[in-house]
Specification:
Pfam family, one: Plug
Subcellular location: Cell outer membrane
Helix content: under 10%
InterPro entries: Beta-barrel_TonB (IPR000531), Beta-barrel_TonB_sf (IPR036942), Plug_dom (IPR012910), Plug_dom_sf (IPR037066), TonB_rcpt_bac (IPR010104)
GO cellular component, one term: cell outer membrane
Shape: globular
Family: Belongs to the TonB-dependent receptor family.
Number of helices: 8
Length: 962
């Protein structure tokens, strides 16, 4: 085991920490260690301090707060920490819920549950996450992990680093979140076994057809030390089964234009809206294990594993309204500026105005694996070496299944005909539910009128893995300013794969006569009514998909395949016979990305006195070399001389049009970093940090999906929504904070400033050099007259680093206090709160609401407040927590992903527990106590985006520990 040494300042802080906690607990005996040694891994200095100083254990929620304050106080960076006591005593639904109690951190709710976190006004794509100090890949197809994949019951602690240091893995412009699982040899007790069981209930489930109201959570864990505390073992299992329900209105983007008032100027028209019930079931199984061996004090070998499987079944049922664009007849338009927010749409012979009865069923299976082995060796009293090898992988198999139906004149007819007498009236009502009316409303629930127009399955399979090896060294120095020197190197190889396939039957907006009709019958349908706030909306037919598919495909339900043709395996023979259509959609949507990273750092840890003020911290630099590339398909028009190859899909079709290749580049980043901590008094310190930081683009944005065309006159042009040439986001950031540790609490105030250098935007580059970028383009083409013409570079529309950034700046205030001087019954009363103010000159241009407007940076809320009132008395422990964030910009999912403005929200949770004895505890929780909905809008609240209600989640359970 490392004999980590504490500076004189750290020892003084440890003594003050004991005085702070003595008001509410007995003081524990401290064991000082030799001075000046630093940590050689990504664990904070706080971990070393907490190993060496026995932290006072205060019962109840207050104990976790003091552990968190100790970690913050002894840390060498600007950071926030959640202790194991907090996560284990009353576990949050997700790690995102737990992290949002920290200053400057807010959450984006998905399905009513916090899944993505924003740090200091920056969205999840700028947040880097590690598990046990190792990079984690994601099931999302992006960089940021989905925190609901990580059971809080299996996480021992969580830290958020707002300022980096050179030894931390690069990647977080907003910040780095480090999750830690158990280290069994650090467990205070010889053996610990914990069982946690809870039953949950959602109070809105009865409003959703086939909605499940009840769920459960169960976990058990064990930690033990053996062989005279030289061998430690920890294992845990956590299971979550929970229903997800929602009733929602979703407004769609304003993508049409029409002069609605004859003034010669076009107004913007929405694509339509959705009124739906959403529901489903989520099952998560998490596993954790760690084996730690210390044969002697100078050497520790630890192996750990983490596995999480998340299986989600979800449905969306209701109807989708398509206004029909500018070719529809629009009467009595209601305008908000230049956008239509109300009126009556009637179908014309040229418009597609219609109402689709929607019965979508989605299946999402996600799996995350993380393994690692770490060896830590004190070679001598002054030299420490650490070696780490790790593997992290994620796999996501998302199957989007859709069933769309339209109103027919007579669905029982031999050849059903579409009912084209369509009239839709609506009036948006700001962030309240709109008024709507349909002349076909009675038909939505009539099995003799509703006819299926399309059935489809669209799997989306992502695989992402990273293998890494790391070596770190730490030298203690006998010098007046530099206490120790750290250096290290890390090499990683990451591979991301994306595979698409498809099955389609039918058409979006019509009944095909070339295929047998998919008829609905009474035994496979049910009439569904909207309830509660949505009770005024028309009923519709809900379809039992299993019964329907069994009736339509008695020979076996068709499965999706990778196909370059129309996507219908039943037509493969026909396509092979006459070559058929050749869209190449699944071919171009699939591919691989490769990312090899070599990073090295050197860092000096400081311990000095400056003008009578204790100074600690670190200064260092990290150098990162990245070699990134992606598979590419060059359209060579089936020319074998330019590399065209035969590519056969799952259906047996052969594509000869493309030449496969690999595109990419290599670059180097230099990241200097500084952290200074000034101990002004025994209970006051000031921190200053400065650093250059980076975040790589989402891994899926590095894919190559370029489409290149060459005109008759030889001009080469192309477009691509992604690019293997994207560089990282870069920023220079500064932090200044003041911390005052008062008896039984603390006050902290911080200022921060980030100078963002660039963002990824879609941009058109004129006279782009395609050949120099690695694209296969001919030197000449033959025009329609048979005359050869030399090719020349034209425009290329693609994702680029635009070189334009801006600042993000703000302030944070945090306060924690236990009122231990009150009379005995109130001595366990306390408060914890924080307020963050963030502003930015960075803006985004959004035209989903019609006219182009500037919106704030994605994820930025100007005001974020978190507050908790807690009380502990004779085994009874309770707390009420509130999280508020002001309006912000983020994405919502309609037909496609839409960037919208989200309204402010306040989410209130309540948790309580009672210790029956030293081993057995009862607990009760309510999440989303006030049933706070999610509401969004397109730039102006009159242009409604989403109104979504999720319900309250109630938990009742028990914890047994011995």
């Amino acid at each position: 085991m490392n004999k980590f040494k504490l500076s004189l300042l750290t020892l003084a802080m440890a003594g003050v920490s004991s005085l702070v906690c003595s008001a509410v607990a007995q003081t524990a005996e401290q064991t000082p260690q030799p001075a000046n040694q630093q940590i050689s891994t990504d664990s904070t200095v706080a971990d070393a301090a907490l190993d060496s100083v026995e932290v006072i254990q205060v019962r109840g929620f207050a104990s976790s707060l003091f552990r968190s304050l100790d970690a913050k106080r002894f840390g060498d960076t600007v950071s926030e920490t959640i202790s194991a006591d907090d996560l284990g005593a009353l576990p949050d639904v997700s790690m995102a819920d737990a992290l949002t109690r920290l200053p400057g951190i807010s959450a984006v709710r998905t399905g009513g549950q916090a899944a993505e976190i924003n740090i200091r006004g920056m969205s999840g794509g700028f947040v880097f996450s590690t598990l046990n100090g190792r990079e984690q890949v994601s099931t999302s197809g992006k960089r940021n992990i989905e925190f609901d994949q990580y059971p809080s019951e299996l996480i021992n602690s969580a830290a958020v680093y707002k300022s980096p240091k050179a030894s931390l893995i690069e990647g977080g412009v907003a910040g780095t979140v480090e999750l830690q699982t158990a280290s069994p040899l650090r467990n205070e007790k010889q053996h610990t076994f914990t069982v946690n069981a809870r039953r949950m209930y959602n109070d809105r489930a009865d409003e959703v057809p086939d909605g499940t109201s009840a769920g459960h959570r169960f976990s058990l864990s064990y930690q033990g030390k053996f062989l005279n505390d030289t061998l430690g073992f920890a294992a845990g299992y956590a299971r979550l089964f929970q229903p997800s329900v929602a009733t929602q209105f979703v407004g769609l983007a304003y993508n049409g234009e029409k002069d609605t008032n004859d003034d010669g100027i076009n107004e913007y028209i929405s694509e339509g809206f959705e009124l739906q019930h959403k529901g489903g079931e989520e099952t998560r199984d998490g596993y954790m294990a760690a084996l730690e061996w210390t044969p002697h004090d100078a050497f520790t070998l630890k192996a750990d594993a983490f596995l999480s499987k998340f299986d989600k079944e979800a449905f969306a049922r209701g109807y989708r309204v398509k206004f029909g664009g500018p070719t529809a007849a629009l009467g009595n338009p209601v305008l908000n500026g230049s956008s239509v927010i109300g009126g009556t749409f009637n179908r014309t012979t040229t418009s597609f105005t219609r109402v689709e009865i929607v019965n979508d069923d989605n299946r999402d299976y996600d799996e995350v694996r993380s393994y690692g082995i770490n060896a830590d060796w004190d070679v001598s009293d002054t030299v420490n070496l650490s070696f780490d090898v790790s593997h992290s992988s994620a796999k996501s198999n998302f199957r989007n299944g859709l069933l769309w139906a339209l109103v027919a004149q007579d669905a029982t007819a031999e050849t059903p005909l579409l009912d084209t007498n369509v009239s839709i009236t609506y009036q948006l009502n700001n962030l309240n539910l709109p008024g709507v009316g349909f002349n076909q409303a009675a038909a939505f629930s009539d099995v003799d009128k509703v006819m299926v127009s399309k059935y489809g399955i669209y799997p989306y399979v992502n695989e992402d893995e990273v293998n890494a090896v790391r070596f770190d060294a730490n030298w203690l120095l006998d010098m007046p300013v530099v206490a120790s020197l750290e250096a290290g190197v890390r090499y990683s190889e990451r591979t991301y794969k994306n595979d698409r396939s498809v099955f389609e039957y039918g058409s979006d907006g019509a009944f095909l006569t070339t295929q047998p009709p998919l008829r609905l019958t009474a035994d496979m349908t049910e009439v569904v009514d909207f309830k509660g706030d949505f009770a005024a909306y028309p009923s519709y037919l809900s379809v039992d998909l299993d019964k329907a598919l069994a009736a339509w495909f008695p020979q076996g339900i068709p499965q999706p395949v990778q196909t370059w043709g129309a996507g219908n395996p039943d037509l493969v023979e026909e396509q092979l016979a006459d070559s058929g259509p050749n869209t190449s959609w699944t071919l171009l949507e699939s591919g691989e990305v490769y990312e090899d990273v070599l990073a090295g750092y050197v860092m000096a840890n400081l311990d000095a006195e400056l003008f009578g003020i204790a100074l600690t911290g670190n200064i260092g630099v990290r150098v990162v070399q990245t070699d990134q590339s992606a598979t590419n398909l060059a359209d060579v028009n089936s020319d074998p001389l330019r590399g065209a190859q035969n590519i056969t899909d799952d259906a047996g079709l052969v594509n000869t049009r493309y030449a496969p290749g690999v595109l990419g580049e290599k670059y180097t980043d230099v990241l200097p970093q500084l952290n200074l901590n000034f101990g002004l008094t025994d209970n006051t310190q000031i921190r200053f940090a400065a650093a250059k930081v980076m975040s790589r683009p989402p891994i899926n944005r590095l894919a190559s999906n370029t489409s290149i065309t060459i005109s008759d006159d030889g001009e080469i042009s192309g477009n691509s929504s992604n690019s293997p040439f994207l560089r990282p986001f870069e920023a220079v950031q500064y932090d200044l904070s003041y911390e005052y540790y008062l008896p039984s609490g603390a006050i902290a105030f911080a200022l921060f400033y980030k100078d963002i250098k660039s963002f990824v935007n879609d941009f058109t580059i004129q006279q782009f050099d395609f050949a120099a970028a690695g694209y296969d383009v001919p030197l000449e083409v033959i025009d329609e007259d048979g005359i050869p013409r030399a090719t020349f570079n034209g425009a290329f529309s693609t994702a680029v680093n635009n070189g334009e950034g801006g600042y993000i700046r703000g302030a944070e205030l945090a306060f924690t206090k236990v009122f231990d001087t009150l009379p005995e019954i109130w001595s366990g009363l306390g408060v914890q709160g924080s307020y963050s103010y963030t502003e930015s000159e960075v803006s985004l241009v959004n035209n989903l609401g019609g006219a182009s407007i500037e919106t704030s940076f994605e994820g930025l809320s100007q005001d974020v407040f978190t507050g908790t009132v807690f009380w502990n008395y004779r085994g009874f422990d309770t707390r009420v927590s509130a999280r508020y964030r002001s309006p912000f910009v983020s994405s919502q999912v309609g037909i496609d992903e839409q960037i919208t403005n989200f309204d402010s929200e306040t989410v209130v949770d309540m948790q309580a527990s009672y210790d029956l004895n030293d081993h057995f505890k009862l607990l009760f929780q309510v999440n989303n106590l006030t049933d706070e909905p999610t509401k969004s809008y397109f730039g102006d609240k009159a242009q409604t985006g989403t109104i979504q209600f999720f319900g309250r989640q109630l938990y009742l359970g028990a914890v047994y520990t011995f």
